[in-house]
Amino acid sequence: MTDVIARRSYHGLSNDDAIEAIHNEIDALWDDASFVPDMDRMTFATAVIEAASNIVQHAQPVAEKPVEIAVDISVRPTRLVARVSAFNAREPFANDMQASMPDSDAESGRGLALIEALVTTVTFERQDGTNTWTLTRET
Questions:
Q1: For residue 92, is it within any domain?
Q2: pLDDT tens, residue by residue, 3-44
Q3: 1 lies in a domain?
Q4: Looking at the domain assignment, is residue 84 inside a domain?
Q5: CATH number at residue 113
Q6: CA-CA distances (angstroms) from residue 93 to 21, 97, 138?
Q7: Residue 13 and residue 20: Cα distance in Å, rounded?
Q8: At residue 108, what are phi and psi to the nearest 5 degrees?
Q9: Considering the domain boundaries, does residue 130 fall inside one?
Q10: How many independent structural domains does the chain possess?
Q11: Beta-strand relationship, 121-127 and 68-76
């Protein structure tokens, strides 16, 4: 297994403050992984923030407990990995997981397609009321 060089994480309520906190964690991550090229930093950070923003904007709770968001980002010598999770969230509808771009006049629906364009792989897993997207980018 490849060694993790740097890691940052965040876990809290799914709200706008979470997005700012995740931005801050990503910025701090690059201090420990300065070897990552700027283009990889920018595209990976954009994908992670887009995934987190989708949770904040669209995740619906399964019960009375609010949706929580967690992001765990690791840097390996040739790979960036982020696990973006929505706890206490309903399973997304099948059409929410389609990565095709919507019509040009659509006001939303570009998130997953954008994420897939920015990273090497995107996977989705649902387990025990938690939706997790794993984003990887080879550097």
A1: yes
A2: 999 999 999 999 999 999 999 999 999 999 999 999 999 999
A3: no
A4: yes
A5: 3.30.565.10
A6: 27, 7, 29
A7: 12
A8: -155, 180
A9: yes
A10: 1
A11: unpaired
